[in-house]
Every structure is written in structure tokens, then in C-alpha cells.
Specification:
elongated; 21% strand; alpha+beta; 5 helices
Length: 136
């Protein structure tokens, strides 16, 4: 074509090449969004078991004061996740998350829990799963 007839409708160009007009998509409206939501829900529902590998895929944690508690916040999936904890616990957890985030390979989930001062199944541990902490 060499840049000729580019202003012509696509159907005319396709007919000139002996091709038919492309058909309409038969994909249901909202299907892609529904599949993404389903996949995210499945990821969120999976809870890693202690002893498995771990990877932090959230943003680096940031600490700030919020009254008598310390806010631990990080970015995840285009949003902001946060926990309000007593300052010493927030600092220990932030340090463990940052170490896991900066490690070149996967970490050990049980070792992460120990470094973070968490127990598997605790409310803090559960809130991290599906918000940046992955079990591998």
C-alpha cells in the first residue's frame, strides 16, 4: 500500500485485498473485568502455609504517627494498604517487610513471620496476605 488510501474505510481496504470485513466480537461485555476480579479473588483467598517460600510484591512500607498508634502503609495494586499498630510492632514489621522486598530471591515464610514478630493466622499476618505477601 505504501501509505496510499489510508483515509479509506477499513472495510473498503479489506475488500480491495480480497478479505472480508472483520466480524464483531462475541465476547460478553465485562468478561475481561470479571475474569480479572475472579483471579484476584483466588489469589486473595490462597493463604500460604508456614515453611513455604515468601515474596513481598507490595510497595516499600512507610511509617507515620496516627495518634497513639503508628500507621504502617504500603502501595498494592494501585491502592494504599495500611495497618495501625503500636510503634515497636510497626517498626519490627516494617523492617521485616523491607528486608523481604529488597531480597533478590524468595524468602522463607516461617523466617519472615519470626522476623516480623507475627504468628501464622494472626490478624496482622492475614491482612498481609492478599495485600502484598505471597506464598510460593
Amino acid at each position: 500500500m505504501g501509505g496510499r488510501d489510508l483515509e479509506a474505510p477499513a472495510a473498503t481496504l479489506l475488500a480491495g485485498l480480497g478479505l472480508r470485513k472483520p466480524g464483531r466480537s462475541r465476547m460478553a461485555e465485562g468478561l475481561v473485568e470479571a475474569l480479572i476480579a475472579r483471579a484476584e479473588a483466588e489469589l486473595d483467598a490462597s493463604r500460604p502455609e508456614p515453611g513455604r517460600g515468601a515474596r513481598w510484591v507490595g510497595g516499600l512500607p512507610r511509617l507515620s504517627q496516627d495518634g497513639k498508634k503508628t500507621r504502617l502503609a504500603w502501595a498494592f495494586r494501585g491502592g494504599l494498604e495500611e495497618l495501625l499498630l503500636p510503634e515497636p510492632r510497626a517498626k519490627v514489621l516494617a523492617s521485616a517487610l523491607e528486608a523481604l522486598a529488597r531480597s533478590p530471591g524468595e524468602g522463607d515464610l516461617a523466617a519472615f513471620y519470626a522476623a516480623a514478630g507475627l504468628e501464622a493466622g494472626s490478624p496482622e499476618a492475614e491482612s498481609l496476605h492478599g495485600a502484598g505477601l505471597l506464598g510460593l
